[in-house]
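Batch job 17 of 40 flagged for manual review because the log was empty.
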Amino acid sequence: MFRFGPALDRLWVLGQMGAARLSFMRMPDVGFWKLCGSGTGEGFTPIPNTAVWAILATWPDEATARTRVENEAVYRRWRNKAKESWTLYMAPTSARGAWSGVSPFMAEGDAGDGPVAALTRATVKPSVLAKFWGRVPNIEDVIGDNPDVAFKIGIGEVPWLHQVTFSIWPDVGSMNSFARESGPHAEAIRAVREGAWFKEELYARFRLLGETGSWGGESPLRNLERIAA
């Protein structure tokens, strides 16, 4: 995750949506990768946020991931331009569905009893965009009021059409409770299923391995300690 400040830096990273692709195409070891923007607030809006951007990439192992993220020129450029950045290292424990026609995450092990991250990605059908975005504000309010969510953000490859939600929870039980409880989130899931709103969708869970940097001036993972307390 990268947060940019002045307008010139925001214009720079917008240009990187094309230029950085060349770097990743030539990068050793990298598997699946995506460059993403975000919405205003915590990302769950159709209005683009020109300050917050993200890189998602898969690697053969954690050591390789840390080496490449630390040393590859494209990552160094983004960190140098950004006023703040945060990198989270994770291992997938389950995944179903597809992203751009492929299955990007190879599940290994299980989530165990510790913190878990959840990622959902969908391509929204153009014919239901208004219905989809009409549901999102209510969902954002509900997840924002949930005391168990340690971190959440909405990002995407293409505004309005390609959406990714990412959240961190203290354990699988608290995450499942939110997903299944009645309210706007459950209602939206039913609407998606009944109306076939998505052309493509992916659901994945991850075990947390480590982090570098900060977000909002501190580590988002500190919220897990506050929840536990």
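Reviewer: the log was empty due to a logging misconfiguration, but the result itself is present. The chain has seven helices and eight strands. Unflagging and moving on to job 18.
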